[in-house]
Every structure is written in C-alpha cells, then in structure tokens.
C-alpha cells in the first residue's frame, strides 16, 4: 500500500464510530418521525448499529462470542417485527392511520 | 473414519450435556413447555379457555415446587450462563405467585369482555419463563433473550383485545417504547462486551476489579446504557412516559401482571449485575449520582402526577412509579440489608398491587369505560364488604401500619439510613406521606361522599367469581399476617447472599 494511503486505513475505531453514528440516526428518527412504521424502521437501524458494534468487537478480540450474539439479536428482531407489524395492522383496521400523534385515545 | 467421527461427536455431545446441567433450568423448562402444551390445548376450541386456566395454575405450581429442589447452594450451569441460587429461587417463587394470581383474576374478566382467547394463558406462561431467565442469567446474552421472551409476550397480552382501540393502542405504544429501550440496553451490552471481552458477569467483575471504571470508557458507557435501558423497564422517571398509557389501555389482569413481575425482574437483574461492581475502587460517582437521581425523580414526579389523577388506573400507574422509586433508594444504597429489604418490598408489592387490581377487576363488571374516582362515590353503602377490602389495599399501599406496606417501607428506609444516605431516606419518607393523599381520596369517595345517581355505573351489579375471591382473600391474608409478623420473612431474605 502506498505511504500516502495510510491515513485511509480502516481500523476498529472507524467501525465503532460508524456504529455510534448509525445508532444516533436511529434514535433521532424515533424521536422526530411520527409514522409508527418509520419509527419501527429507525429502531431496526439502531439494532443493526448494535450488531455492527458487536461484530467489530468480536473481530477485534478474535473470538466469536459477539458474532453469536448478533444471531440472537437478529432472531429477536425478527420476532419483534412480526408482533409489531401485526399490532400495526390491527390498529390500522380500527383507526385508518399509523400516525402516532393521532393515536391518542389514552390520555389524562 | 466415519466411526471415529461419530465417536468424537458423541463424546463431545456428552461433555456438552454434562456441562449443561438441565436440572438448574427445571422451573424455566416446565413453564415454557407448559406454554407450548397450552398452545396445543387451545386447538380444542370449546372449553379450552377454562382448561388452560386450570393447567396454567398447575404448571406454575409445579415450577415453584421445582425451584425448591435446586437447593440453596449457588450452582452454575451452561458454561456459566445460568446461575441458580437462593436469590434466583426467591424470584422464581415471586413470578409463579404473580402468574397464579393473574390467572385467578383473569378468567372471569376476560370472559366478560369477550377476549377469552385460550392462547392468553400460554402467553402468560411464556412471559413467566422469560422473567425466570432474566434473574437466573449470569450472562448478558441470556438476560437479553429472557427479556425479549418476556417483552414479546407482553406486547400481545397488552394488545389482546383487538376490538378495543385502547388495548391495541396500549400494545403498540408498549411495543415501540420497549423495543426502543431494548436497543439502548443492547448497545450497552455491546460496549460492556467490547471493554471486557465477555458477556459473563464473573468475567465482567474480574475486568472491573483489575481495571477501574475510569480507565475503561467503554465499560462506563456500557453500564450506563444498560442502566438506562433497565430504568425504562422499571419505568423510573424520566423513562416513565409509556406507563400510564399502557396501564390504562391494557386489560386489567394484564395491567396487574405488567405492573408487578417485569419491574421486579428488571430490579432483580440490576441487583445481580451491579453487585459485580460492588468492590470496584473507586466506585464511579456518576453512576451513584444517576441511581440516586432516578430514585428521587421517580418518587417525586410519580407522586405529583398521581395527586390530581381522576382515572383510577392512571393513578395506580403513577403510584407504581413512586413505589419503584422507593425500591430504587434501596438499590442506591448498595448493601446486603438493602437487597433483603428490596426483596421484602417485592413480596409486599405483589400482594398489594395484585390485590387492588383484583378488586378493580371485580368492580369494573360490564364497564367498558375508564374507571374514575367519581365512580367510587358511596360504594361503602352499596357494597360494604368490597369497599372495606379495597380500603385495606389502599391503606397498605399508603404504608399505614400494621399492614405489610408499612413494614416494607420501614425495612427499605432503615436500610437506606444504615448506608448513610440520610437525605434520600428523608425524601422517601416525605413522599410516602404525600402519597397517602391520593390513596385516601379514594377512601373518602367510598365512605364519605353520597352515591351519584346517574353515573351510568351500577355498583349494585357487582358479582364475583370464586377465583377472584380466592385471589383477594389470599392477598388480604398475606397483607395482614405478614404486616403483623414481618420478622420471619425478612430473616429469611437476610440469609440470601448475592
């Protein structure tokens, strides 16, 4: 590799920074967006940021515990999306909207 | 060649199975197998709802007996992922008791509201097995899986009434907020893993003892994120926003379950996890400050929001936030006495909270609207016995001696004082006095106000089944007997070391 390209070498830190950025994008999305489906997508971005961090740490320490954990996270995320989407469908049948600002029957 | 391979595979399998020690998971496996069995019984269609209720109680009973069997010595299994000791056994008993009480108060209520889906009990059992995994875990991976088994079941249970918009809304809100919090918890676990190279509690402890927090920002950030994610599950202020909505919208028995067991399990995990950092020198100030401020905020904000609440379920939601604030003070004081006091508080909290929800489930017969405090006007004249029982539960929640609520608060605050956190104890006791106001408001409505004529809410129509009465009477008995004789139970809890 030419000497001048050394600054572009990608280390673990880069992956962790990317993961933190993705996590923040997801968090911001959850707080800003009002569509329940988009909020759910943003949460998935957060979970994938976690996966990235786990894989990075796992690679860095040369063990596979983190990579196994990623499979757990993925399986759980799949189960959660099944439940979440079905709840959304039930809600949409009754209310014809998935906007969280309009879902306000409960308050006091 | 193939024979050698099969030989090595079988010896490998044998070693794997011998390190697993399935016996440690007996209660967990029984409950989750029971959940699957109930799913199959649900196919019977007709009497399935009744059969499942009965089977659920049997399964939970067997599981709690099995917890006796694992013994009091700490044992680890599954390559250190599961640790079974007296601490986790006590929690298993608490979950089984909560589960049984929930089944008892569910049956009639669910039938009345025509949400008698037999799978409900199966979900309840899955939730209980998730709870058990949360406190038996000695590895963050198992904790996460247990937490999600619990959460996924609870989303469905909260939204089980698909014809009622409130229930669906509660389910969806709980889902979105809970998954959001799980992401924070997971990010924290990832950082802890990155810092320590392991997800096992013991390895995390070794790492924390040899490298202090200050030298490992990843561990620091990770523990804070885990704490934040769990504070959400406990619904400590400022992570409490979902609580009143979900409590109000979910069916009553589900609310009763939701307000007790998951919070207790989250605290159980926090006690077990943070005990690993007990001897870390210096203990990080920021961590201690955050726990103390969570406790203070939960007590004060929970109380203030409950003061003017007209809806009974929302009032109880805010009051549960306050109660978890009291336990948080015990958590902040980081001593063994505080842990036994917290265990006593959990036991007391279950009887008080399940009992009060059982009474409300009986009262809200045929009532599709939200119960407000006005609905209780003149209840003492129409239903003196029910009003009296309701009053005892309210008094116990308010912490009036000689009921169990008083003993529980006494133990918690004396443990806090023993650890030298005087300010925290004073704030707690003052809040306990303030909370009496909104509990007594209900009592005043019942006893001193004239009944409303056209409230559209007929108190005379109240009928109750055997199961509900059984739940209420056993809660009342526990509240009074343990309130008068708390010493034997607290001595039992004091022997439990982490």
Account of the protein in words:
The complex is a heterodimer of chains A (108) and B (498). Chain A is mostly helical and 108 residues long. Chain A is built from three helices and no strands. Chain A has one domain (12-95): Helix Hairpins (Orthogonal Bundle). By secondary structure, chain B is an all-alpha fold. Chain B has a domain at 298-498. Chain B has a two-stranded antiparallel sheet. The termini of chain B are far apart. The interface between A and B is large, with 42 and 41 residues.
CATH architecture of chain A: Orthogonal Bundle
Q: What structural class do the secondary elements of chain B suggest?
A: mainly alpha
Q: Could you say how many structural domains of chain A there are in total? A: 1
pLDDT below 50 for ≥5 consecutive residues: which ranges of chain A? Answer: none
Helix segment tally of chain B: 21
Tally of strands of chain A: 0
Distance between the termini of chain A: 65 Å
Low-confidence stretches of chain B: none
Number of E-state strands of chain B: 2
SSE succession of chain B? HHHEEHHHHHHHHHHHHHHHHHH
Category from helices, strands and their pairing of chain A: mainly alpha
* Proportion of strand residues of chain B: under 5%
Summarize the amount of helix of chain B as a percent range: over 70%
Q: What is the averaged pLDDT score of chain A?
A: 90
User: Which percent range describes the beta-strand content of chain A?
Assistant: under 5%
User: What about the largest sheet of chain B?
Assistant: 2 strands, antiparallel
The CATH topology of chain A corresponds to Helix Hairpins
Biggest interface, chains and residues, is: A-B, 42 and 41 residues
Radius of gyration of chain A: 19 Å
């Amino acid at each position: 590799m030419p000497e001048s390209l050394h600054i572009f070498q990608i280390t673990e830190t880069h992956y962790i920074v990317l993961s933190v950025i993705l996590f923040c994008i997801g968090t911001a999305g959850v707080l800003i967006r009002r569509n329940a489906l988009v909020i759910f997508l943003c949460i998935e971005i957060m979970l994938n940021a976690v996966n990235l961090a786990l894989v990075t740490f796992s690679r860095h320490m040369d063990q596979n515990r983190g990579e196994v954990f990623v499979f757990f996270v993925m399986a759980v995320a799949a189960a959660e999306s099944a439940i979440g989407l079905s709840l959304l469908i039930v809600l949409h049948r009754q209310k014809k909207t998935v906007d969280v600002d309009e879902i306000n029957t409960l308050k006091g | 060649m193939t024979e050698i391979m099969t030989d090595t595979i079988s010896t490998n399998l044998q070693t794997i199975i011998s390190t697993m020690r399935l016996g440690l998971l007996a209660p967990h496996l029984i409950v989750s197998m029971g959940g699957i069995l109930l799913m199959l019984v649900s196919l019977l269609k007709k009497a399935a709802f009744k059969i499942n209720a009965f089977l659920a109680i049997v399964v939970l009973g067997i599981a709690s007996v099995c917890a006796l069997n694992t013994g009091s010595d700490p044992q680890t299994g599954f390559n250190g992922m599961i640790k079974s000791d007296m601490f986790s056994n006590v929690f298993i008993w608490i979950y089984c008791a909560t589960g049984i009480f929930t089944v008892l108060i569910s049956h009639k209520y669910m039938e009345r509201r025509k949400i008698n889906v037999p799978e409900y009990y199966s979900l309840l059992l899955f939730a209980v097995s998730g709870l058990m995994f949360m406190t038996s875990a000695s590895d963050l991976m198992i904790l996460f899986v247990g937490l999600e088994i619990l959460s996924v079941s609870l989303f469905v249970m909260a939204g089980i009434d698909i014809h009622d918009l409130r229930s669906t809304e509660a389910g969806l809100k709980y889902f979105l907020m809970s998954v959001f919090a799980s992401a924070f918890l997971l990010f924290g676990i990832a950082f802890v893993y990155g810092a320590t190279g392991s997800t096992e509690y013991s390895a995390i402890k070794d790492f924390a003892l040899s490298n202090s927090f200050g030298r490992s920002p990843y561990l620091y950030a990770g523990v804070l994120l885990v704490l934040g994610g769990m504070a959400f599950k406990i619904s400590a202020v400022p992570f409490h926003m979902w609580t009143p909505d979900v409590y109000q919208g979910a069916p009553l028995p589900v609310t009763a379950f939701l307000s007790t067991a998951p919070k207790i399990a989250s605290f159980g995990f926090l006690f077990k996890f943070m005990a690993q950092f007990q001897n870390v020198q210096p203990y990080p100030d920021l961590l201690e400050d955050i726990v103390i401020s969570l406790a203070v905020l939960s007590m004060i904000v929970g109380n203030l929001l409950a003061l003017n609440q007209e809806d009974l379920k929302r009032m109880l939601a805010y009051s549960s936030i306050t109660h978890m604030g009291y336990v948080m003070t015990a958590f902040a004081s980081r001593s063994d006495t505080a842990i036994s006091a917290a265990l006593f508080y959990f036991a007391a909290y279950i009887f008080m909270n399940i009992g009060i929800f059982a009474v409300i489930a009986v009262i809200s017969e045929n009532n599709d609207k939200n119960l407000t405090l006005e609905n209780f006007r003149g209840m003492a004249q129409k239903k003196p016995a029910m009003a009296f029982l309701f009053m005892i539960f309210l008094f116990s929640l308010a912490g009036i001696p000689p009921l169990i609520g008083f003993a529980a608060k006494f133990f918690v605050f004396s443990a806090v004082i023993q650890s030298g956190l005087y300010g925290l104890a004073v704030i707690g006791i003052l809040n306990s006095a303030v909370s009496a106001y909104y509990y007594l408001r209900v009592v005043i409505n019942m006893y001193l106000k004239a009944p409303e004529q056209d409230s559209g809410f007929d108190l005379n129509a109240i009928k109750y089944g055997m199961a509900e009465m059984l739940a209420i009477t056993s809660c009342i008995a526990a509240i009074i007997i343990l309130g008068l004789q708390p010493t034997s139970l607290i001595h039992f809890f004091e022997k439990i070391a982490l």
